[in-house]
Specification:
The protein is 43% helix and 16% strand. The protein is globular and about 60 Å long. It has 394 residues and is of the alpha/beta class.
């Protein structure tokens, strides 16, 4: 599958930037010890491959998904082979005391954290929302503290474009996480990256297209939602460049130019089916789409249901920075940098931690309590609550 063609591009992002710094990057990687947290997810795997092919001294990959780690190893052995350094994968939860023991008994130069709850649908109930807070904020702060105690040289944590003027709790959780990064950057060098949707990443709508085809099910997508897309390889390169070349507090993001433009999910669905040799057949309802699969497939057609988005947390447009952030647009060809020199309100961060601790000890909490806490942390937070969620869609 030609992902670039599918997302409407002919050129890769970041190729010139990687080439310019390749000698430095390869030299640093070869001499260094890396811990990759959440390394079996789509972005984590992309970074692991970028590191692996440059022969790191040590690379340990941890993730809660045992199956994804197995596939990561099989993928690497089948494509890149072996390295002289120490490469290990471990099915560990970075929030556990087992992970603490593991990290306390190892030494790393770089810690990269890709562990995240990334779906807007995860804010639909108070329990998955608290899990999102735990993974995106609390575990990030915890692994930073462990990195500080172990004299790690650099900590990298992936953010999201949805942290820019967030309208959903997922994006807001990442914005709050960024505030914890700034707070901790006085004790350890930290950089991050905001970027667009990663095409065919696990759990994404495009990944869902693959699943629907395999299971002979209709494609469903919003026709009014436009998004920027990067390839898995590009996501890995951007994170790698931020980790190794970013200064303390830097947030890397892809520049918007002729190489990167908005495209609707419905347009991608049509292109995707065309590449597979199917003609899209637009249905008027989910029910029609479900019932027509077998008959249409015999005619080399595939049922699609395209709809107008009305679910909670959908942002009308994507952006990577705000008007108040200071930018460096000259250092790289295809990468912009937010020079994060903002001060954070330490009292608000303390209040946030205390409130979350109280709620968790109490053993019950409501979504409204968590939304109110997010509004306290982010006074300009414009949460879009419609009462509808993606789980109610096909």
């Amino acid at each position: 599958m030609d992902i670039l063609k599918l997302i409407g591009r002919t050129e890769e992002l970041f190729a010139e930037d990687v080439m310019q710094y390749e000698s430095f990057i390869s030299d640093v990687i070869h001499k260094s010890r890396f811990l990759i947290i959440g390394g079996a997810g789509s972005i984590g795997q992309a970074v692991v491959k970028e590191l692996f092919k440059r022969n790191p001294k040590i690379m340990h990959v941890v993730d809660i998904s045992e199956n994804n780690l197995v596939e990561l190893v099989r993928d690497i052995r089948s494509s890149l082979g072996y390295i002289s350094g120490d490469f290990q994968t471990l099915p560990l939860d970075c929030g556990s005391i087992i992970f603490d023991a593991f990290m306390n008994n190892n030494k790393y130069d770089y810690v990269l954290n890709f562990s995240a709850l990334k779906h807007v649908r995860s804010e639909k109930d108070p329990y998955t929302l608290m899990r999102m807070i735990e993974v995106n904020i609390l575990n990030t702060d915890k692994t930073i503290q462990l990195s500080i105690s172990k004299d790690v040289k650099k900590y990298f944590c992936v953010s999201t474009d949805k942290a820019t003027n967030p309208v959903n709790m997922m994006g807001a959780s990442k914005k709050i996480m960024e505030k914890f990064l700034i707070k901790n950057s006085v004790k350890i060098s930290i950089s991050t990256a905001r970027f667009a949707n990663v095409a065919f990443s696990d759990g994404s709508l495009l990944h869902g297209f693959n699943m629907r085809i395999q299971k002979r099910q209709p494609l469903s997508a919003p026709r009014d939602v436009k998004r920027y897309f990067v390839t898995p390889k590009e996501s890995g390169e951007l994170c790698l460049l931020s980790c190794l070349l970013g200064e303390n507090g830097d947030i890397f993001f892809p520049k918007l130019n002729e190489k990167l433009h908005l495209i609707t999910f419905s347009d991608i669905a049509i292109r995707y089916l065309d590449m597979l040799g199917y003609q899209p057949y637009v249905c008027a309802s989910e029910d029609e789409a479900r019932k027509s699969v077998e008959a249409l497939v015999k005619e080399n057609k595939w049922p699609c249901y395209f709809f107008d988005s009305d679910t909670t947390g959908e942002k009308d447009f994507e952006e990577f920075y705000t008007k108040d952030e200071i930018l460096d647009m000259s250092r790289f060809q295809d990468i912009g940098i937010i020079k994060n020199n903002q001060e954070v309100d330490l009292e608000r961060l303390k209040k946030f931690q205390e409130t979350i601790t109280t709620l968790r000890k109490r053993g019950q909490w409501t979504k409204d309590e968590l939304v109110d806490l997010f509004n306290y942390m982010l006074p300009d937070f414009a949460h879009k609550e419609t009462g509808k969620y993606l789980d109610s869609r096909m």
